[in-house]
Amino acid sequence: MAFVYINAKKFLKGEIENPESLQNASQEYHGTMSNYYTIRIKNRQTGTFHTVRVPEDEYILHSLEAQGLELPFSCRNGACTTCAVRVLSGEVYQPEAMGLSPELRQQGYALLCVSYARSDMLVETQDEDEVYELQFGRYFAKGRVRFGLPLDED
Ligand code: FES
Questions:
Q1: What pLDDT does 146 receive?
Q2: CA-based angle 49:50:55, to the nearest 5?
Q3: Could you tell me if 91 and 38 are in contact, meaning their C-beta atoms sit under 8 angstroms apart?
Q4: What spacing in Å lies between the alpha carbon of 72 and ligand 1's midpoint?
Q5: For the CA of 74, the nearest atom of ligand 1
Q6: Which atom of ligand 1 is nearest to the CA of 99?
Q7: pLDDT of residue 110
Q8: Closest CA to 96 of 110, 106, 117, 82
Q9: First-to-last CA distance in the chain?
Q10: What's the rounded Cα separation, in Å, for the pair 24 and 20?
Q11: How far is CA 80 from the centre of its chain?
């Protein structure tokens, strides 16, 4: 929730009468206002393309949802990688993305549920389980797969 603080003297003198003045009053009080960035999103699952504006101080996924755009998610805590995207251009800040290895971050992956935009960005959603496979596939791909119960061994 955002609050706007109004200088009472200016308000009573009629110096604050439109929303732009209120915004300026808020900026005066806080010293700064959020920067907004444009994010272009290619949703590979639905074949759709979206362009949205997000503030720098709000999780990207949360901001997209508030604007009516639904993307895949599950844990919302940076752990499951369901919300992962590939950042094709731009900068993202994601200190809480514990579900992503440093290598995958280096490769340009980001978890939108715990990411902040730091510039205009172009991203695309991952293929289903793409990040999970990249991160853990090597551990499950080793060894022969045997069907049956362990006690069925000869
Ligand atoms: S929803 Fe689980 S990591 Fe983002």
A1: 64
A2: 150
A3: no
A4: 9
A5: 1
A6: 3
A7: 97
A8: 110
A9: 65
A10: 6
A11: 14
- Residue 31 is predicted with a pLDDT of 47
Index of the ligand 1 atom closest to the CA of residue 81: 3
Cα(78) to centroid(ligand 1), Å: 5
Segment 19-35, tens digit of pLDDT:
455 445 444 544 457 89
- CA distance linking residue 125 with residue 44, whole number of Å: 6
Report the distance separating Cα 71 and Cα 48, nearest Å: 11
Ligand 1 environment, Cβ below 6 A: 73-76, 78-83, 99, 111, 113
**Lookup result for tokens 């996924």:** 61
| pLDDT tens per residue across span 35-51 | 999 999 999 989 999 99
Residue 113 has pLDDT above 90, yes or no: yes
Average pLDDT, the chain: 82
Cβ contacts of 32 within 8 Å, gap of 6 or more: none
Q: What is the mean pLDDT of residues 125-150?
A: 75
Report the nearest-CA residue for atom 3 of ligand 1: 78
Contacting residues for 116 by C-beta, under 8 A, at least 6 apart: 56, 57, 58, 59, 60, 92, 93, 94
Q: Give the integer Cα–Cα distance in Å for 126 and 143.
A: 27
